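writing this on my phone so excuse typos. first protein, seq and then structure
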Amino acid sequence: MSEQKLEVFNVLNFLNSGYELEDILNEGQFGTFPSAQDCIDYLVKEGYLAGEGDSITAEEISKKYTVADLKGLLKENGLKVSGKKQELVERILPVLNDNSSAGDYELTDKALGFIKENEWIDLYMFALVAFRFEDYETYVAGSSAGKIETALNFCDEILSRALVANQFLVFIDALSAKAHVYAYDGDYESFLDYDLQRYILGLNPISLDAQSYATYDVINEANIINLRNVLEKLEMGSLKKRFDRIWNICNIRSTTVPKKTCYKLLKRAIAGADIEELNFDLKEKYFNKKFGI
């Protein structure tokens, strides 16, 4: 049921933010629901949506549209445009009903209460999707801290476990997640610190087995895009000074890519250099021999 809870929250939360139901359902991946209509039916049945979802009738179409209008609609939908008005009406009827299947629904008080009670899911979707929803749901249920503090504590626990288990890829995923928790809270200073740490350790892995390395991107493109966006939009001070400070925090015991080279590559990547080419060069020069490839 956890997966369905996540889907229901996303639909209701988007509706509450002003999106149209039909647009949400057209974009959605429903998982536990076979179709968009099944999702609507469930939300109505459970009392999250209220309103009329009635189909339009042939009589209503005939009154609303002229023959020219009907032929235009039929042509737009690749249907035959010849015949009397009633024939045109019958031909366009299924199309118009399909387009209006979402109906005019409104969020109920139950839906608004569900959104408020589960607002932590919005943070999960923003920052923590690299981790299992069920695991985070259980963690939230056992936490007495606030939404942001709970998410940061969750990330810290994953970081600790990943270090003990030498799970480097999990470790850098948790660093990225923690950065995004801070971004969600509007703390872009901390976001930049943790995303820089993720970048630096990406070039200097704590541990990396051959199987993980086979598909490993030394410079992560999403990481670079995040750094670039924050640096372009906000006045964050000297990048070099911040980089030096974060490098020291990382406490790298076995350097793979030298500090000066890491910074030069960071500047090139942020400036728009081809990430794939940078990764190829890095693996050839620093990584392949070290990791036994």
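second protein below, same order as before
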Amino acid sequence: MFKEVLRRSAVGAVFGVTLSQLIAIVISLCIADGNFYAVVPSLTERMNSEVSAAIVQIVCSFLYGAVFGGMSMVWELDNWSILKQTIVHFSVVSVVTMPIAYINEWMHHSILGAIIYFAIFGVSYAFIWLSQYIAMKKRIDEMNKKVVEMV
């Protein structure tokens, strides 16, 4: 199981960096002034260079993706309830998300900024979780229907 967590973490890390760069490209295309915006300007200012800011963001994206990838193993712990799996997964990814968002200047550095960011994260997490739950339930119901038809 440890090897699988490491494998998923590695895949997640690559995915995290890739997604981060794709988001930067999309934002740059939306601004449409011919420049590439690798990071938010406030991070560049804090780091005193765009290269340093980009390195910080890439390292954070790497860690972010690795945690999400590794934590995907939680969903395969059949001896845990869906509630326990969800609480553990949400707790761990939240603990990782907040400092990374803060470091990368993805949120305002204030209590209100943290609350708003966490609310957006929580709603997004709930929406994705619910859509996955509904899709999985539908597949299970279809499999159960086929089993009943076979009997």
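The mean pLDDT is 94. thats all i got for now
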